Amino acid sequence: MKKTILSFAFALLTVFTHAQQKPNIVLIYADDLGYGDLSCYGATNVKTPNIDRVAAEGVRFTNAHATSATCTPSRYSLLTGQYAWRKTGTGIAPGDAALLIPTDRVTLPGMLQRAGYQTGVVGKWHLGLGPKGGPDWNGDIKPGPLEIGFNYSFLLPATGDRVPCVYVENHRIVGLDPSDPVQVSYKDPIGNEPTGKANPELLKMMYSHGHDQTIINGVSRIGYMSGGKAARWVDEEMADVLTGKVAQFMERNQKNPFFIYFSTHDIHVPRMPHSRFVGKSGMGPRGDAILQLDWCVGEVMKTLERLGLKNNTLVIISSDNGPVVDDGYKDDAVAKLNGHKPAGPLRGGKYSAFDAGTRVPFIVRWPGKVKAGTSDALLSQVDLLASLAALTGQKPGADEATDSQNTLNGFLGKDKKGRDYVIEQAINNTLSVVKGNWKYIEPSTGPKIMVHTNTESGYDPQPQLYDLKTDIGETKNLAKQHPQVVQELTNLLKTVRGNDQK
């Protein structure tokens, strides 16, 4: 009897210990960070020591991809395990869009909740909020993150350059005065707030294209907003506010396994870093925002160490898409590049079908579990859901995370090959395939250069084929020399596209 009791107690202890040993997961998702923007990826004009340290202690990937060259679809795919181009309405979302992710869909945080995790999101959301028709900004703002698998959320509802310029914590605007209700419009002017177009003398950063509507904190935005004056954010304080919320979440949940999705605003426009970073990069606000992003990463790592969680935490650092220099504000980003190449050796950038649109920095650190080094494994962010499910002893159902594959060994640096192929999506929904050394871009129409951002689009009415092993800059179209490869990748894309996974 005594032996039985002892055995039972030991079994309970084993189960308890196993539960406690599930790794915490910290996903730091930068915004518009290019393949060449970090010193660990070759940048020399700007130094990112905190991110470099994470890379030195983990695996730095050279061929990892966001699913799209723009933010909303990349985030949709990251959280759902489904390519965004399968679902209508997943282009760049306006600031008053309804929630884009169906509440009955299994998501990355929802899957981790099933494994006993506390889940949180802090930072940029840009996946819509509220029911069809948009949210009630002055009431309960739902459905939102809490209805799709997060236990806690502290959000920029859309992006820093779009109204409403307020924080939303769980279901409510933070600090909202009921006597000063928020109103938002993306069609017609609302209220009597000054705009950048009519009142440029009020701006502390001039717009270059678009971004000429309601002025908040001396910066004109996309969209019109009135009210909510006590709740409006201060751009220069944003990184401190968001990083502080991440630290608080980890402190509250340090006794249990947690997942925190830290979706930074940096280095998206408007680039308005804290005064302690201003002028420090020598590259203007864009470079200073990179320094601020690096500081945010350093603060998160300090918190993990202070809480004694460093060794049992899987840290992932990546970006939602590639870089853009002038994205709507006159912030000297172009003039002060001084030879810096945000995309490194890659061609294109944010919005583009070329590889700089989706090939992004990707770093994984997990002490004792991930061997430090560099990996050329082909990876896609769409696989994080199935891979982290495998890490936590789960497997998505047949109708869940339908485009997500279990490439956990690739993410942990154990499998040097990774995926068989990766699908990339440009802003106009042009799709590309990377398989082995080959990159195929399907025929499409549109301007060769996106004039406002001076980005090469990758659009061409003829098929494009590049050998990325010898031509990482995608300069020599080999489609005519290798028609059989073009046909093979055309058929592959047709097969993947034909899998009707709503």
What do these coordinates show?
- It is built from 9 helices and 22 strands.
- The protein is 22% helix and 16% strand.
- About 2% of the residues have low confidence.
- The strands form 6 sheets. The chain has a 10-stranded mixed beta sheet with strand order 7-6-5-4-12-1-13-14-2-15, sandwiched between helices.
Write a concise synopsis of the structure shown.
With 502 residues, this protein is an alpha/beta fold.
Order of adjacent strands in the largest pleated sheet: 7-6-5-4-12-1-13-14-2-15
Write down the overall geometry.
globular
> Could you tell me how far the N terminus lies from the C terminus, measured between alpha carbons in angstroms?
56 Å
Radius of gyration: 23 Å
The low-confidence runs, each spanning 5 or more residues with pLDDT under 50, are 9-20
Which secondary-structure class do the elements indicate? alpha/beta
Topology, number of strands: 22
Query: What's the helix count?
Result: 9
Q: In what range is the share of β-strand residues?
A: 15-25%
What is the average of the pLDDT values?
A: 95
Work out the helicity level: 10-25%
Largest sheet: 10 strands, mixed
